[in-house]
Known about the structure:
- The chain has helices spanning 32-43, 53-79, 86-103, 122-131, 148-162, 181-197, 213-217, 222-236, 262-271, 289-305, 321-335, 344-361; strands spanning 16-25, 109-117, 134-141, 170-173, 204-209, 244-249, 276-280, 310-313.
- The chain is α/β, with parallel strands linked by helices and 362 residues long.
- The protein has two domains: 16-177 and 321-361, Rossmann fold (3-Layer(aba) Sandwich); 181-313, Rossmann fold (3-Layer(aba) Sandwich).
- Helix 1 (32-43) crosses helix 2 (53-79) and helix 6 (181-197) runs antiparallel to helix 11 (321-335).
- The longest helix has 27 residues, at 53-79.
- It is found in: Cytoplasm.
- Its main location: cytoplasm.
- Belongs to the ferrochelatase family.
- Its EC number is 4.98.1.1.
Amino acid sequence: MKYKHDSSFIHGQSRFVGVILVNLGTPAELSVASIRSYLKEFLSDSRVVEIPSWIWSIILRTVVLPFRPRSLLNKYRSIWLSEGSPLRVHTFYQAKNLQRLFDQSQSFVRVRHAMRYGSPSLEEAYDELRNLGCDRFLLFPLYPQYASSTTGSVYDAFFSILKKCRYIPEIKFIHHFHTHRAYIEAMAVHIRDFWSRNVITDKLIFSFHGIPRMSWKAGDPYPCYCYQTARLIAEELSLSKDGYEVCFQSRFGRADWVEPYTVDVIKKMACSGHKKIMVVSPSFVSDCLETLEEISIELRDVFLSNGGEEFYVVPSLNDSHFWISALEKIVSEQLGTWLIPDSAEELECVKRRAMIAHDSHE
């Protein structure tokens, strides 16, 4: 086996720390071909669809890919920003603004963003950081609650990259942050800020992305993590147990997924006389198709058509200043002693090289 040539390794060189923020992914552009390419990569991941590959490959090629991309085109069109896909845009600014924070205190930390599926790829981000001289890495999947199909898949992809490398750097991983104080506080501040500019409803709906019930039964802790997150945010907001509901959205296929389903909860609330509700999705730190189209458009229609009157959706954290501050706290905590140069000489060397790298990146 031939390993990837690593020209960036120099014996005795000063150390940069590379931080990679990883989100799910998105089509590169508004076209059926781009959506099809994205779905093919995404739905070919065995952690995402856990049925025998020979069966699923037939379904994917003959049923999903020929028809679903066209049906998704208008949905993506309804949320697309002038800069591109909302998820890619927000993730880019999260990395950029986090870099700015570290530039103020830790000049040898380099931050990049990547997508598990699509572009920029995880390998592209890793190679760029290696070329900048990073030999310590923090991999940060932007999924607060661990799930096999999300964080687990990011691990798979990263290890696949390392298998091709002659030099393996020091590595740390963020497994989850669903109970981290900085994340919980950022969510609570974000919701309060939204309340201050809108009506406070009598019920807050926590809608998390769902997973198949089979995955939960097989040992995936994701649903438990979701309930923990909702409880901690509710406590921070001083909500009673009757003041919020937890549910799960984005069911795909015919298999049973973790319940209750968001669409059923919202319909039931409208039919039972609730006129005003507010929905927040703590599993998404960046707005995307699931928050901007599925919740803000589809589920809003469900609520209003069943007797509801006012439907509010709390935006994702995106690149809000309190979320960037929380990111910096989570990352710094994980980096630990990596933020301390080995010597004064190395510190000066790192600063000089960081200025050069930063100028070239700008």
